[in-house]
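USER: For my understanding, would you kindly supply a protein sequence with its structure tokens?

ASSISTANT:
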Amino acid sequence: MKKLLTLFMVMAFAATSFGAMLGQGTQELFLGGSLDSETPVGTDWFVTVGYGYYIMDYVEVGGIVSVSDNDVNTTYDLAVFGEYDFETETQWIPYLGASFGWGGSDPEVGEKSDAGVLTPYAGVKYYIAENVAPFVQFQYQLATDDLYPNDEGELKSTNYGFTLGIRVAFE
């Protein structure tokens, strides 16, 4: 019984004293995406890749490239982002951020369009190692022109959704 109690105490201590790499000079690569096969416009998939650099503790800036596609439209995004990580002294790290960039739309029917895109987002990372963290985030995209399909297949200027992925930090 003493061994079991000791094991639980060690595990509890380890879970609360975890040190994620969030300091100045840390770099981060991430890959994320989503897939929904039940949309009115066919299977909808989204992939995003990015690189970030912590300019100070808990503050990251970087770039993102994203592509999404379904039966009626393909959308491309190229953006810069800023993100703030909230230190919780646990493996769970919530964050807030925003990106701003260019988006392009290539619909199956109609003309291509380009627009400025602002994307505020919020998410949480869970560090499974000092430098590896799966994440989930919610983002809301606001474009200056119609880029994103609605349920009827017509383009609109807003979009939202969840992204799941993995982040890897290094120095």
Summary: The two ends are 42 Å apart (CA to CA). DSSP finds one helix and ten strands in the chain. Confidence is low (pLDDT under 50) at residues 1-17.
